[in-house]
Amino acid sequence: MRILVTNDDGINAPGLAVLEAIAAEIAGPGGEVWVVAPAFEQSGVAHKISYTHPMMIAQLGPRRYAAEGSPADCVLAGIYDVLEGARPDLVLSGVNRGNNAAENVLYSGTIGGAMEAALQGLRAVALSQYYGPENRDLRDPFEAAAGHGTATVRALLEHATWDTDDYRLFYNVNFPPVPSDRVRGTRVTRQGYRKESFFGVEPHISPSGRKFLWIKGGPQHMPTAPGTDAAANLDGYISVTPMRADLTAHDAVAPLAARFGD
Q1: Cα–Cα distances in angstroms (integers) from residue 65 to residues 36, 37, 57, 74, 134, in the given order
Q2: Pfam family of this protein, just one (predicted)?
Q3: What's the Cα-to-Cα distance from 173 to each of 93, 191, 245, rounded to whole Å?
Q4: According to the annotation, is 8 in a ligand binding site?
Q5: pTM value > 0.85
Q6: Does any domain span residue 198?
Q7: Is 9 known to sit in a ligand binding site?
Q8: What average pLDDT does this structure show over 72-76?
Q9: Mean pLDDT computed over 98-111
Q10: Is residue 91 part of a domain?
């Protein structure tokens, strides 16, 4: 199996090393793992592509490249340049430092990499490690992802639906904020929503007197509805959420058409 790996935390991120190990196990002795990851951190860039300017790409080692672009850029670079059209069998994006559950999905570069792979007609999985008081101070905060990532991806390859629709399915996996031996199992979930937890800005004044604004996230341990990703994660479960890039509100189409007289 040929696997393309990317992330949004950058080529030197510890979560990428975890994902490379997972990919190596999935690919097997006769397989190939190719890494094309951002040269610098690209958290929060969502599905951005560098449409208006070029990006530099550099080979750092065998089957290992860094690109000055987003995760979606890296997927495109991997498919059309690094692999020279030899399409991967699977694209893995992550393991993200922090959760990509609930509304975080919409901002995530990790999700953007997997989404671009799905739009390219490839099987894709995004993987993220929730942080919390039970794992953030561990020697390896990615312990749950490292311990359960391979089995989770294998289960998806064996049992998940991999369709050929225009907007193909891809999968969003979040590992709970607990040590590996405290993971309670896996739940298939919907995307949740943290009420009253929004991104905002925090102003700071520089030594030169100029005002700068830092983007600031909201609380990550707010409860979400039962059956959703963040709720499962905070209860100690791995969440697996099927996703598509289609943003149509399908439930609103018919009612709106009726109001327009269609």
Answers
A1: 5, 7, 7, 9, 34
A2: SurE
A3: 10, 11, 16
A4: yes
A5: yes
A6: no
A7: yes
A8: 98
A9: 98
A10: yes
CATH number of the domain encompassing residue 29: 3.40.1210.10
Residue 62 in tokens: 């065998």
Torsion of CA 249, 235, 14, 11, to 10 degrees: 0
Distance CA 144, CA 58 (A): 31
Whether 12 maps to a domain, the answer reads: yes
Residue 96 annotated as binding? yes
Q: Is 214 within a domain?
A: no
pLDDT digits 0-9 by tens, 167-209: 999 999 999 999 999 999 999 999 999 998 999 999 999 999 9
Question: Count of domains in the chain?
Answer: 1
What is residue 27's predicted lDDT score, i.e. its pLDDT? 98
Reply yes or no on whether the pLDDT at 262 is more than 80. no
Q: Residues of the chain with pLDDT > 90: what percent?
A: 97
